[in-house]
Amino acid sequence: MEPKLFQRLLAEFVGALALVFIGGAAIISSQAGGGLITVALAHGLAIAVMVSAVGHVSGGHFNPAITIGAWVTQRIRLGDALGYLGSQLAGAAAGALLLRLSIPKELWEPTSLGTPTVTEFAGFGVGQAVLIEAVLAFFLVWVVFATAMDPDGSFGKIAGLAIGLTIAMGVMAAGPFTGAAMNPARAFGPAVVGGFWTNWWVWWVGPVAGGIIAALLYDSVMLRTRMKPPAEDTHAPAPAAPEYGGPGEPSGGMMDEPEA
After folding, report:
1. pLDDT single digits (tens) 3-40
2. Cα 33 to the chain's mean position, in Å?
3. pTM
4. How far apart are CA 153 and CA 249, in angstroms?
5. What DSSP state is assigned to residue 61?
6. What kind of architecture, by CATH, is found in domain 5-224?
7. Are 126 and 200 in contact (CB under 8 A)?
8. Please, what sign has the CA dihedral across residues 205, 61, 82, 152?
9. If you placed Cys at 129, which of 18, 65, 118, 197 could pair as Cys (CB 3.0 to 4.6 Å)?
10. What are the pLDDT digits (tens) for 141-182?
11. How far apart are CA 169 and CA 230, in angstroms?
12. Helices 202-217 and 159-178 meet at what angle, rounded to 10?
């Protein structure tokens, strides 16, 4: 039975909450010696666990860049996509609020409650930050499509692990430069709760642009070219475009049946 919309929205809310709370807590605790590897693993494991837990319910987006990529490739309806975006942003804000209530201000304030920031190295600015976030989000959405949305993906059942590792490697590579959020909700939550809005648009423009490019490229080159009928069987009907479902599910997920 296909999950109802409110169930999918709840799954997206909890997943985004977990990412912001666990990821932000790791950033704050890194002041005590946790380091970049700890922060990367915390973000990656949070997503891996949540995708594995509720990916079959909502698809395990937890990220507006992924949802927008699914929408532009017609794997989720506009109304559902807007609901996903609202749930992700609300969950991220709730995670940041719980983080603020759980940890003394003198501990979280030096890290801006875990809000991603553009590090001011010599010659490094917001333009480079947008590009880095776009590249990292491209890799992330590419992996999501390859593992969770491609019905032929051989790793569908362990999509959470692949997606989580992609996030972890992104944080290891670019955490010191941009925070490696790859996710507008990840930046929005602590920003709205803590009031840290410097360069906020970087984590919207970069991830959304990179995600759209990855989604369109994978959908048009890797998926739709495989759906064409063989040249010798010109009378055979082309298979329907794979609809969006949970990780590893065959086509016919969210768009085939009307909401109850």
Report:
1. 899 999 999 999 999 999 999 999 999 987 779 999 99
2. 27
3. 0.86
4. 10
5. -
6. Up-down Bundle (1.20)
7. no
8. positive
9. 118
10. 999 999 999 888 766 678 899 999 999 999 999 999 999 999
11. 39
12. 140
